[in-house]
Inverse folding.
């Protein structure tokens, strides 16, 4: 997979996407938005990939959208451009495989949005995160969509309207980060976290992720109805039979993925 703005690698069940505009602090331009979405979709179809990790080249994860592309557009053109920048939220939510953001340095504006859009985030100590567009008269409304499912109304509005940065520990405290780890252990800890998922039944992982994204906007009773549908389907899989038998026999399950 050859792209102009991202690097894609595969190893040991992991698909790794590196945002590769370090000279621009991995800001999103049109090409990188296209490349990222395409790389995510293609890795989701690869049978030898179980988990996808997104990281940034150089000193930062991503500091947002490249303002070099800002200006001179009609409202319709801006709408298309912004929709492209935010497409990753839909792409990740619709994927079968979990996506982990491996975050260091700064995750700002659309970079914070990507961190929030990912299913998991492992963050290096000292990382700064912020939705800072309001400081230039704009708004990080795209990132706020994912943030609002994580941090609650008051914190989401504070981040949107103050433009203040938070540190990695605060991100962990409010649920935006799963783990905060020493910077020199970031890759090791991210791979270790990924391995936990790789070791699980691929059927259960896929159904579990789909259940979450289908469930979050449903009313209470419909959530429970969906639960019954998903669990009855999962109980009927070969992997469920293998897992239960392995548990009974105190052996390691050999998943079939069906």
């Amino acid at each position: 997979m050859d792209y102009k703005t991202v690097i894609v690698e595969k190893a040991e069940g992991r698909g790794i996407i590196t945002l590769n505009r370090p000279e621009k602090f991995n800001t999103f331009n049109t090409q990188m938005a296209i490349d990222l979405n395409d790389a995510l979709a293609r890795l989701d179809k690869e049978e030898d990939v179980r988990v996808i990790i997104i990281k940034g080249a150089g000193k930062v994860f991503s500091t947002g959208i490249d303002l070099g592309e800002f200006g001179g557009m009609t409202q319709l053109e801006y709408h298309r451009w912004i929709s492209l920048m935010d497409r990753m939220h839909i792409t990740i939510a619709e994927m079968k495989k979990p996506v982990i953001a491996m975050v260091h340095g700064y995750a700002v504006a659309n970079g914070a949005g990507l961190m929030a859009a990912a299913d998991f985030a492992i963050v290096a100590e000292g990382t700064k995160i912020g939705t800072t567009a309001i400081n230039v008269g704009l708004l990080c409304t795209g990132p706020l969509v994912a943030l609002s499912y994580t941090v609650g109304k008051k914190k989401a509005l504070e981040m949107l309207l103050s433009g203040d940065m938070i540190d990695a520990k605060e991100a962990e405290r409010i649920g935006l980060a799963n783990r905060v780890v020493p910077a020199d252990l970031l890759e090791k800890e991210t791979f270790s976290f990924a391995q936990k998922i790789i070791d699980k039944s691929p059927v259960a992982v896929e159904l579990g992720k789909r259940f979450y994204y289908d469930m979050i906007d449903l009313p209470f009773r419909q959530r429970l109805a969906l639960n019954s549908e998903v669990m009855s389907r999962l109980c009927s899989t070969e992997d469920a039979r293998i897992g239960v038998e392995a548990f009974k026999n105190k052996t390691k399950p050999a998943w079939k993925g069906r």
Residues 75-94 form the longest helix (20 residues).
